[in-house]
Amino acid sequence: MSFRFLAVCALLPWSAQAAELTTRPLSELAVYAVYRVNATANPVDEAQLGLAVPGRIEALPVRVGETVRRGSALVTLDAREYRIERDRAKAQVDLVASQLRLAETQLAQNRALAQRDFLSTDALRVKETELAVRKNELAATRQGLAAAELALSRTTLVAPFDGVVRSRLASVGDYVSPGAPVVVLAASATPEVRASVPVSQIASVRAAKAWVLDAAGLTVPLALKRISPLVDRAAQAQDVVFAPTQAMPVGLAGEVRWEGGQPMLPPAYVQKRDGVFGVYVMRGDAPEFRPLPEAQQGRPVPVPADWPTDLAVVDEGRFQIGLAPAGAAQ
To answer: With contact defined as beta carbons under 8 Å apart, do 269 and 31 qualify?
Structure first.
Protein backbone atom coordinates (compact mmCIF):
# COMPACT_ATOMS: atom_id res chain seq x y z
CA MET A 1 0.00 0.00 0.00
CA SER A 2 2.81 2.43 0.91
CA PHE A 3 4.78 1.55 -2.33
CA ARG A 4 1.82 2.45 -4.54
CA PHE A 5 1.42 5.75 -2.73
CA LEU A 6 5.09 6.69 -3.34
CA ALA A 7 4.84 5.83 -7.06
CA VAL A 8 1.84 8.08 -7.49
CA CYS A 9 3.58 10.88 -5.62
CA ALA A 10 6.63 10.56 -7.92
CA LEU A 11 4.46 11.12 -10.98
CA LEU A 12 2.61 14.08 -9.59
CA PRO A 13 5.35 16.73 -10.27
CA TRP A 14 5.72 15.76 -13.96
CA SER A 15 1.98 15.49 -14.47
CA ALA A 16 1.50 18.95 -13.00
CA GLN A 17 4.35 20.32 -15.16
CA ALA A 18 3.06 18.75 -18.37
CA ALA A 19 -0.35 20.22 -17.72
CA GLU A 20 1.24 23.70 -17.68
CA LEU A 21 2.98 23.34 -21.08
CA THR A 22 1.43 24.83 -24.19
CA THR A 23 2.57 24.45 -27.80
CA ARG A 24 2.37 26.35 -31.04
CA PRO A 25 2.94 25.00 -34.55
CA LEU A 26 6.27 25.88 -36.11
CA SER A 27 4.51 27.71 -38.97
CA GLU A 28 3.16 30.27 -36.46
CA LEU A 29 6.50 30.88 -34.81
CA ALA A 30 8.71 31.02 -37.89
CA VAL A 31 9.91 34.48 -38.90
CA TYR A 32 11.70 35.55 -42.04
CA ALA A 33 14.63 37.91 -42.35
CA VAL A 34 13.67 41.26 -43.86
CA TYR A 35 16.19 42.82 -46.23
CA ARG A 36 16.30 46.48 -47.25
CA VAL A 37 18.46 48.28 -49.79
CA ASN A 38 18.35 51.79 -51.22
CA ALA A 39 16.73 52.08 -54.65
CA THR A 40 15.57 54.67 -57.18
CA ALA A 41 12.90 54.67 -59.86
CA ASN A 42 14.75 55.52 -63.07
CA PRO A 43 13.22 56.16 -66.50
CA VAL A 44 13.62 53.29 -68.94
CA ASP A 45 15.02 55.78 -71.47
CA GLU A 46 16.70 59.12 -70.88
CA ALA A 47 18.36 60.77 -73.85
CA GLN A 48 20.39 63.90 -74.50
CA LEU A 49 18.95 64.86 -77.85
CA GLY A 50 20.75 66.87 -80.48
CA LEU A 51 20.37 67.65 -84.17
CA ALA A 52 22.20 65.83 -86.94
CA VAL A 53 22.82 69.03 -88.92
CA PRO A 54 24.26 72.41 -87.88
CA GLY A 55 22.22 75.59 -87.75
CA ARG A 56 20.71 78.38 -85.69
CA ILE A 57 17.75 77.55 -83.46
CA GLU A 58 14.59 79.17 -84.74
CA ALA A 59 12.11 77.63 -82.30
CA LEU A 60 12.38 75.74 -79.02
CA PRO A 61 8.74 75.38 -77.93
CA VAL A 62 9.12 72.82 -75.12
CA ARG A 63 9.70 73.78 -71.49
CA VAL A 64 11.29 71.94 -68.59
CA GLY A 65 8.78 69.60 -66.97
CA GLU A 66 6.53 69.55 -70.02
CA THR A 67 5.16 66.22 -71.21
CA VAL A 68 5.56 65.52 -74.92
CA ARG A 69 4.34 62.76 -77.17
CA ARG A 70 6.46 60.74 -79.53
CA GLY A 71 6.93 62.66 -82.80
CA SER A 72 6.33 66.08 -81.24
CA ALA A 73 8.64 68.86 -82.45
CA LEU A 74 11.19 69.79 -79.81
CA VAL A 75 13.60 72.05 -81.72
CA THR A 76 13.45 73.72 -85.14
CA LEU A 77 16.43 75.24 -86.95
CA ASP A 78 16.46 78.04 -89.49
CA ALA A 79 16.02 75.85 -92.57
CA ARG A 80 16.31 78.41 -95.38
CA GLU A 81 19.71 77.20 -96.55
CA TYR A 82 18.54 73.59 -96.51
CA ARG A 83 15.44 74.46 -98.55
CA ILE A 84 17.65 76.19 -101.13
CA GLU A 85 19.84 73.10 -101.37
CA ARG A 86 16.76 70.92 -101.73
CA ASP A 87 15.35 73.11 -104.50
CA ARG A 88 18.72 73.19 -106.26
CA ALA A 89 18.96 69.40 -106.17
CA LYS A 90 15.42 69.11 -107.46
CA ALA A 91 16.21 71.46 -110.36
CA GLN A 92 19.30 69.41 -111.18
CA VAL A 93 17.17 66.28 -111.34
CA ASP A 94 14.74 68.00 -113.72
CA LEU A 95 17.65 69.18 -115.90
CA VAL A 96 19.25 65.77 -116.19
CA ALA A 97 15.86 64.16 -116.82
CA SER A 98 15.34 66.55 -119.75
CA GLN A 99 18.81 65.74 -121.10
CA LEU A 100 18.01 62.05 -120.79
CA ARG A 101 14.81 62.42 -122.81
CA LEU A 102 16.74 64.33 -125.49
CA ALA A 103 19.40 61.63 -125.60
CA GLU A 104 16.71 58.95 -125.99
CA THR A 105 15.16 60.86 -128.92
CA GLN A 106 18.50 61.36 -130.61
CA LEU A 107 19.40 57.70 -130.21
CA ALA A 108 16.12 56.62 -131.81
CA GLN A 109 16.82 58.88 -134.76
CA ASN A 110 20.41 57.63 -135.14
CA ARG A 111 19.28 54.03 -135.07
CA ALA A 112 16.88 54.77 -137.95
CA LEU A 113 19.73 56.36 -139.90
CA ALA A 114 22.03 53.45 -139.16
CA GLN A 115 19.49 51.00 -140.57
CA ARG A 116 19.65 52.89 -143.89
CA ASP A 117 23.44 53.03 -143.73
CA PHE A 118 23.45 56.81 -143.28
CA LEU A 119 25.30 56.48 -139.93
CA SER A 120 28.30 54.39 -138.99
CA THR A 121 28.25 51.78 -136.25
CA ASP A 122 30.82 53.70 -134.23
CA ALA A 123 28.71 56.85 -134.28
CA LEU A 124 25.69 54.87 -133.10
CA ARG A 125 27.71 53.45 -130.22
CA VAL A 126 28.67 56.97 -129.16
CA LYS A 127 24.99 57.94 -128.92
CA GLU A 128 24.22 54.79 -126.91
CA THR A 129 27.05 55.62 -124.52
CA GLU A 130 25.76 59.17 -124.13
CA LEU A 131 22.35 57.79 -123.19
CA ALA A 132 23.88 55.46 -120.56
CA VAL A 133 25.82 58.39 -119.09
CA ARG A 134 22.64 60.47 -118.83
CA LYS A 135 20.88 57.62 -116.99
CA ASN A 136 23.71 57.39 -114.47
CA GLU A 137 23.69 61.16 -114.03
CA LEU A 138 19.96 61.06 -113.34
CA ALA A 139 20.43 58.36 -110.68
CA ALA A 140 23.21 60.42 -109.05
CA THR A 141 21.18 63.61 -109.01
CA ARG A 142 18.22 61.80 -107.51
CA GLN A 143 20.49 60.58 -104.71
CA GLY A 144 21.60 64.18 -104.22
CA LEU A 145 17.96 65.26 -103.97
CA ALA A 146 17.26 62.54 -101.40
CA ALA A 147 20.26 63.71 -99.33
CA ALA A 148 19.07 67.33 -99.50
CA GLU A 149 15.55 66.33 -98.41
CA LEU A 150 16.98 64.27 -95.55
CA ALA A 151 19.11 67.21 -94.37
CA LEU A 152 16.05 69.46 -94.53
CA SER A 153 13.99 67.01 -92.47
CA ARG A 154 16.74 66.94 -89.84
CA THR A 155 16.34 70.63 -89.15
CA THR A 156 13.44 69.64 -86.89
CA LEU A 157 14.20 67.53 -83.81
CA VAL A 158 11.27 65.32 -82.77
CA ALA A 159 10.72 63.31 -79.60
CA PRO A 160 11.76 59.66 -80.10
CA PHE A 161 9.41 58.50 -77.31
CA ASP A 162 6.75 59.78 -74.92
CA GLY A 163 8.51 61.65 -72.18
CA VAL A 164 9.09 64.64 -69.96
CA VAL A 165 11.57 67.41 -70.74
CA ARG A 166 14.16 67.22 -67.98
CA SER A 167 16.31 70.16 -69.14
CA ARG A 168 17.01 72.52 -72.03
CA LEU A 169 20.66 73.01 -72.91
CA ALA A 170 20.21 75.77 -75.52
CA SER A 171 17.96 78.71 -76.37
CA VAL A 172 16.39 80.29 -79.43
CA GLY A 173 19.08 82.03 -81.49
CA ASP A 174 21.91 79.72 -80.42
CA TYR A 175 23.99 78.12 -83.16
CA VAL A 176 24.31 74.38 -82.60
CA SER A 177 26.74 71.89 -84.07
CA PRO A 178 25.77 68.38 -85.17
CA GLY A 179 25.31 66.09 -82.20
CA ALA A 180 25.45 68.85 -79.56
CA PRO A 181 22.83 68.13 -76.83
CA VAL A 182 19.94 70.57 -76.88
CA VAL A 183 17.19 68.84 -74.86
CA VAL A 184 17.28 66.09 -72.21
CA LEU A 185 14.18 63.90 -72.44
CA ALA A 186 13.19 61.27 -69.87
CA ALA A 187 10.69 58.57 -70.79
CA SER A 188 7.36 58.93 -69.03
CA ALA A 189 6.51 55.24 -69.34
CA THR A 190 6.62 52.92 -66.31
CA PRO A 191 10.10 53.32 -64.77
CA GLU A 192 12.57 50.69 -63.67
CA VAL A 193 13.48 50.42 -60.00
CA ARG A 194 17.19 49.81 -59.62
CA ALA A 195 19.01 48.75 -56.48
CA SER A 196 22.57 47.75 -55.62
CA VAL A 197 22.31 44.53 -53.62
CA PRO A 198 25.25 42.97 -51.71
CA VAL A 199 26.42 39.70 -53.20
CA SER A 200 25.59 37.90 -49.94
CA GLN A 201 21.89 38.85 -50.34
CA ILE A 202 21.44 37.97 -54.02
CA ALA A 203 20.26 34.45 -53.18
CA SER A 204 17.55 35.87 -50.92
CA VAL A 205 16.40 38.19 -53.72
CA ARG A 206 15.97 35.23 -56.05
CA ALA A 207 14.18 33.16 -53.39
CA ALA A 208 11.80 35.92 -52.28
CA LYS A 209 8.15 35.74 -53.29
CA ALA A 210 7.40 39.46 -53.10
CA TRP A 211 9.29 42.75 -53.28
CA VAL A 212 8.05 46.26 -52.50
CA LEU A 213 9.41 49.77 -52.79
CA ASP A 214 8.86 52.07 -49.81
CA ALA A 215 9.27 55.67 -50.99
CA ALA A 216 7.69 59.01 -50.07
CA GLY A 217 4.92 57.32 -48.10
CA LEU A 218 4.06 54.98 -50.96
CA THR A 219 4.32 51.20 -50.97
CA VAL A 220 4.68 49.98 -54.53
CA PRO A 221 4.66 46.23 -55.33
CA LEU A 222 7.49 45.15 -57.61
CA ALA A 223 8.34 42.32 -59.97
CA LEU A 224 11.90 41.09 -60.40
CA LYS A 225 13.13 41.73 -63.96
CA ARG A 226 16.83 40.93 -64.00
CA ILE A 227 19.99 40.64 -61.92
CA SER A 228 23.23 41.83 -63.45
CA PRO A 229 25.90 39.10 -63.48
CA LEU A 230 28.58 41.78 -62.95
CA VAL A 231 29.82 42.47 -59.42
CA ASP A 232 30.93 45.96 -58.48
CA ARG A 233 34.48 45.50 -57.27
CA ALA A 234 34.40 48.26 -54.66
CA ALA A 235 30.91 47.70 -53.23
CA GLN A 236 30.81 43.92 -53.79
CA ALA A 237 27.24 44.33 -54.97
CA GLN A 238 25.18 43.54 -58.05
CA ASP A 239 22.63 45.71 -59.82
CA VAL A 240 19.09 44.38 -59.51
CA VAL A 241 16.27 45.78 -61.64
CA PHE A 242 12.60 45.59 -60.67
CA ALA A 243 9.44 46.62 -62.52
CA PRO A 244 6.64 48.32 -60.56
CA THR A 245 3.30 46.59 -60.97
CA GLN A 246 1.35 49.84 -60.59
CA ALA A 247 1.79 53.42 -61.78
CA MET A 248 4.35 55.47 -59.90
CA PRO A 249 6.31 58.71 -60.42
CA VAL A 250 9.69 58.57 -62.13
CA GLY A 251 12.59 59.59 -59.92
CA LEU A 252 11.29 58.40 -56.54
CA ALA A 253 13.99 57.22 -54.13
CA GLY A 254 13.42 54.85 -51.23
CA GLU A 255 14.08 51.30 -50.12
CA VAL A 256 13.34 47.98 -51.74
CA ARG A 257 12.17 45.50 -49.13
CA TRP A 258 11.75 41.74 -49.31
CA GLU A 259 11.62 38.72 -47.03
CA GLY A 260 14.11 35.91 -47.17
CA GLY A 261 12.86 32.47 -48.11
CA GLN A 262 14.50 30.69 -45.14
CA PRO A 263 12.22 30.33 -42.09
CA MET A 264 13.89 31.32 -38.83
CA LEU A 265 13.05 30.42 -35.25
CA PRO A 266 12.95 33.42 -32.87
CA PRO A 267 15.82 33.45 -30.32
CA ALA A 268 13.32 33.50 -27.43
CA TYR A 269 12.54 29.83 -28.11
CA VAL A 270 16.16 28.70 -28.25
CA GLN A 271 17.59 27.26 -25.02
CA LYS A 272 20.94 25.86 -23.98
CA ARG A 273 21.01 22.45 -22.38
CA ASP A 274 24.28 20.73 -21.49
CA GLY A 275 26.20 23.23 -23.61
CA VAL A 276 24.04 22.67 -26.72
CA PHE A 277 21.54 25.11 -28.21
CA GLY A 278 18.17 23.72 -29.17
CA VAL A 279 14.41 23.92 -28.76
CA TYR A 280 11.80 21.85 -26.94
CA VAL A 281 9.10 20.18 -29.01
CA MET A 282 6.35 17.84 -28.00
CA ARG A 283 6.75 14.22 -28.95
CA GLY A 284 3.58 12.49 -27.99
CA ASP A 285 2.79 13.63 -24.45
CA ALA A 286 6.39 14.43 -23.46
CA PRO A 287 8.70 17.30 -24.39
CA GLU A 288 11.81 16.51 -26.41
CA PHE A 289 14.91 18.66 -26.77
CA ARG A 290 16.01 19.03 -30.39
CA PRO A 291 19.52 20.42 -30.94
CA LEU A 292 20.11 23.31 -33.37
CA PRO A 293 23.83 23.22 -34.29
CA GLU A 294 23.66 26.53 -36.19
CA ALA A 295 22.08 28.45 -33.31
CA GLN A 296 23.80 31.45 -31.73
CA GLN A 297 22.96 33.23 -28.51
CA GLY A 298 20.29 35.90 -29.02
CA ARG A 299 19.96 35.45 -32.81
CA PRO A 300 17.25 33.83 -34.95
CA VAL A 301 18.25 30.36 -36.08
CA PRO A 302 17.45 28.76 -39.46
CA VAL A 303 14.83 26.04 -39.20
CA PRO A 304 16.16 22.68 -40.45
CA ALA A 305 14.67 21.71 -43.79
CA ASP A 306 13.35 18.38 -42.49
CA TRP A 307 11.26 19.93 -39.72
CA PRO A 308 7.53 19.86 -40.60
CA THR A 309 5.60 23.11 -40.48
CA ASP A 310 3.09 21.61 -38.01
CA LEU A 311 5.80 20.61 -35.54
CA ALA A 312 4.52 21.39 -31.99
CA VAL A 313 7.02 23.72 -30.35
CA VAL A 314 6.71 24.17 -26.60
CA ASP A 315 5.62 27.72 -25.83
CA GLU A 316 4.51 28.48 -22.29
CA GLY A 317 6.45 26.60 -19.64
CA ARG A 318 9.44 25.87 -21.90
CA PHE A 319 11.94 27.29 -19.45
CA GLN A 320 10.73 25.09 -16.58
CA ILE A 321 11.31 21.83 -18.45
CA GLY A 322 13.91 19.74 -16.66
CA LEU A 323 13.94 21.96 -13.58
CA ALA A 324 12.88 20.60 -10.21
CA PRO A 325 9.46 21.96 -9.16
CA ALA A 326 9.29 24.22 -6.14
CA GLY A 327 9.22 22.22 -2.85
CA ALA A 328 10.45 19.00 -4.49
CA ALA A 329 13.65 18.95 -2.43
CA GLN A 330 11.58 18.84 0.72
So the answer is: no
